[in-house]
Amino acid sequence: MWIAVTFLATIFQTLRTAAQARLRPDLSVNAASYVRYILGAPISITACAVVIWWSADGMPTIPTRFWFIVIGAGVAQIIATIALLTSFDRRDYAVGTVYAKTEVIQVAVFSAVIVGEPLRLWGWISVVAVLIGVVKLASPPGTPLRQIVHQRDRAAQAGVLAGAGFALASVGIRWASTSLGDHPALVRGLVTLAAMNTTQTIVNGIWIRIREPESIGIIFRHWKRTLPVGAMSVGGSASWAIAMSMETAAKVRSLGQLELLLTFLVSRAWLHQRHQRSEFAASGIVLIGILGVTLFG
User: Fold this and answer.
1) Burial degree of 113 (CB within 10 A; 0-12, 13-18, 19+)
2) CA-to-CA separations, 280 to 57, 61, 129, 284, in angstroms, rounded
């Protein structure tokens, strides 16, 4: 079940990222990232209330540590989103994307250290394979891998920071969700998401209010374009949270790299774009790595 939910999350995330990128001409980096929180929070709270009302188990008992974990994860995701959009604004989009993909290995390390959910030996080997494959796929065609690795510009630095932030957020979501006891994964996932979105709306809202007070008005003025971002963000975030309520963050995020592989396949089959043999090899490595993490991690 977690595999299907993760696959759904990758679809929502792809659509949200594309819609969010289209907002950049009208919104700053901070405001474009804030859209997903200020519009997503009411939707996630409503969905949470409906699911709790429908569930026979009712509202989970929320321990104190849950709030500390959620706040930490929420802030990490805010920083990661801003860092990712910053990397896209720098001179080299591809470099930022490649370094953001280091999330795959970072989330495995953080899961082992923070939550105590290490992968088995073949799981670690598979995660490294996924990382190598996605880095190669995200690299500009014909660019040697060593040239990408040796980058020291702001795009690379922002990309690494984004990867770390997303990794910490994923581990935090998993940790917060498992702290809610034995309630159904759907309930635990949506409660975690609603709490996290609300926290992010408040924290990032204070920052926006101080630094860019005019941005909030722009967000609502362009509501026809910003609302879909909020809706797709909730769909993606809810799917990630529910999947990580069922399975470890390392496995879920590794499987989530299907997003890059699907983009590659669509460009080949639908857009008829030509690719090098090295890109097909990288796709194969990603697929093998994902299968390895899923089956043996």
Assistant:
1) exposed
2) 48, 49, 14, 6
Residue 3 to residue 46: CA distance in whole angstroms: 25
Both tokens of 143, joined, read 């660019």
pTM of the model: 0.80
Task: State which amino acid sits at residue 208.
Answer: I
Nearest to 134 by CA among 168, 172, 94, 76: 94
Distance of alpha carbon 50 from alpha carbon 38, whole angstroms: 20
Q: Which tens digit of pLDDT belongs to each residue from 113-125?
A: 888 888 888 888 8
Dihedral over Cα of 140, 142, 143, 144: its sign: positive
Calpha distance 153→95 (Å, rounded): 9
Give the CA-trace dihedral at 247, 104, 7, 38, to 10 degrees: 90
Q: Kindly report the CA angle at 242 between 238 and 244, in degrees rounded to 5?
A: 120
